[in-house]
Amino acid sequence: IKKLTKELFLGIPLTSSIREDSDYFHPFVYHNSANGEVKNTALILQMKAFSIKRLMNRTGIMDKQNFELILEKGKKMFSPTP
């Protein structure tokens, strides 16, 4: 999501377990050359800092629409409640 330092970035972990769409989870599908269609769920509630060493190999690319939806859900988590 955002580069913090030369060796850390803010990211959202994924799981292959499909969860119901909510403010904390976002299911999506992406395609990669090795496995074809891959189903994942973004665990928005578990947003955290990761080491760049976790990016040893990129497995696929998420479409822009899903990425923007996940960003919006992440922003909602940090906005003050009325």
UniProtKB/TrEMBL annotation:
Protein name, entry field: Type II toxin-antitoxin system PemK/MazF family toxin
InterPro entries for the chain: Plasmid_toxin/cell-grow_inhib
Organism this protein belongs to: Sulfuricurvum kujiense
